Here is the input.
Amino acid sequence: MNLLEVLILGLVEGITEFLPISSTGHLILTAHLMGLRPTDFLKSFEISIQLGAVLSVVVLYGKKFWVDEKILKRILIAFLPTAILGLMFYKVVKKFLLGNPAIVVASLFWGGILLVLFEMFHKEKKEALEDMRKISYSKAFLIGIFQSLAFVPGVSRAAATILGGLILGFKRTTIVEFSFLLAVPTMLASTTWDLTKSAQGFSYDQIGCLLLGFLVSFLVAIVSIKFLLHFIKSHTFIWFGWYRILAAMLFKFIVS
Here is the structure.
């Protein structure tokens, strides 16, 4: 990977990580369009730079939530399904799913249709849950199960988590922020696990690429989070659904 490719992938990750459009899917498609082969290093790179974007949450939220024991407990419980399933299916996901543009395109397209249909019929109730501290442990665990659907590239961790929360009766802003926080242990665990399995084979240049991609995604994600929080105050996610459909169709047209 050259410097420009690292910068582009870091930029794509930072923009897409918290939007319901699948950062992993966009990284795979972008790498494919740039002619990068889906090597073990590229797959590890695509996993690792997501942690850079996710750590922007720690900076933005600081002590606002991380010192709140009630919220932390619910985040950890929501993280459990992903942790368990991740340990079970890590090899399958990395070998057969990551780096597969066909799976990404299908997930983007059908996920976009689902998102559009959901937003057309979903109406937020006045009694929707607003306080994260009042999320029941059972619902926190269910949110984690929804998040686990994102093992399939193109599904979108953010979309799965947010839609799951809306189905369970959460206020939109509440589940979006909970999704931000849940991303931290999720990506920290997945990156650490992957690097312990793969990093010993990386060259110094490859490690430099990882660090640069990490930094770029971190900086760009700060802007992306602020945009999303502002956007959801007056919009639904239906436009992201249409975008997913269009992106899938465009990619299919370009590579065909």
